[in-house]
Amino acid sequence: MAHPQLPTSHQALATPEHCQNFQPTGSLPLTSVTTSPAQAITSQPSLPVPAQVTLQYAKDHSIQPLTPLLLTLSQEKKFHHILPLLPITSGQPQVQSSCDLILPSPGAFSLPNSSLSPTFPQFHTSNYTWNHVLSLVVQPSLLWTCYTPKSLGDYPDIKSLWEAWEEGMMIKGVGCTPPIRLVDERWGTQKGHRASWRPAADPQARTAWAKYHFFIVQIKAYQAAGHTVSEAIAHFDGERAGRSVNQFHKLLQEKRPSQKQKQNMAEAERSP
Q: Where is this region: Disordered (predicted)?
């Protein structure tokens, strides 16, 4: 897919690995938020995704609106709401990129029990960041279906599992999700409060989160012991020794002492 013909000045280059903290050059504060409907486009799973895309500002430095789109993967019978990195250019086809932000449903941005139909807030080139998008969410309970971690068997290694936490995930032909860390920092378990973005009444969701977050805790603990994240990942991927991440999780669970064993060890330490 060809990029629109754009001037070379006032542009910022974004690569997929930087999607989670991409900041447009010359950003200005957003002074108002309006609503806009999502347009619909259709994509094939084999659609080539540019490795690099250009964010272009108008020659007069004005802020340009970004319109959420409904992207349908026809062969997989799935759809995603996305926020394109590039604004729509008159007379040009909408450019897709691997840095397009995958949005939750418009209901996540709308007040519950509202008499109005859910709509997306207005996005601009000045606020194309995950922190801004997440700051507009008013119903975090609607985020789980969109940003839930993959099952352990879908991660090829510990490194990719950590990248989903710290950098977000790329979905080929669609775009990127936010770092799970950003979502959980806002709506995860806090003292006296349950996590508001994870379904408390869904045992499968609780199990999926516990399995995924187990490795995040392990990496952080290894890091707290004086190691870097890279060293922690290398350590656990080395211990994995070719096993799948799911098999490795089961092995580590078997090695963990039971609650009774922990109590016995604690009593032994206290005894003279």
A: 252-272
